[in-house]
Amino acid sequence: MAGEDRRRQLLEVAIDLFSKNGFGGTTTREIAHAAGVTEAIIFRHFATKQDLYAAILDHIRITVGTDRWPVEVQALMDRNDDEGLFRRIMASIVQMHRTQPRFERLMLHAALEGHELAVMHHNRMMLAMGRPLLEYIERRQRDGALRGCDAMAVILAVAGMARAWAMQKYLYQICESPASDEETIESFVRILMNGLRTATIQEGEDS
Description:
Helix content: over 70%
Radius of gyration: 20 Å
Order of helices and strands: HHHHHHHHHHH
Number of strands: 0
């Protein structure tokens, strides 16, 4: 197998095992056995476990195209499109759960086990989207477009509603709502905007 193909295979096997058994329940020996190679082959492609974890995040980013999300989010912020921004973030979160449930389970294991991959993922997301989004909300509040409140609470509300829906539907598979993802996201956006729009903005829209 060619080097790049072998690397992708090892990443897929690692993601699969980590998502099923967690990090404490998965060894490099088990990854090697499942991939049909020796441990030496794994360390030939990933010199350290940290290299493997970073490669998993890169693999997901390339597979799903999450590297495009910050660009799309920035374009919405440049236009001061609050609704479009919140809608895009929620849609991205739901898309990840729908198309990459293994990765979401893997990240749950990482969080529960206090694994360094959770910190790596958080730091990457904060650098790419978290801080710019926080600054955007604070700016929109200063401009009078959004109500004054804890900007981080707004971010948590945006992400939390979408994640709760997606986890019930795609991880736990217990969601009984007949609404589609798009319909649910639209409801969430309405809830957010009704709570965040200032009276001046709301009056301007009604007139």
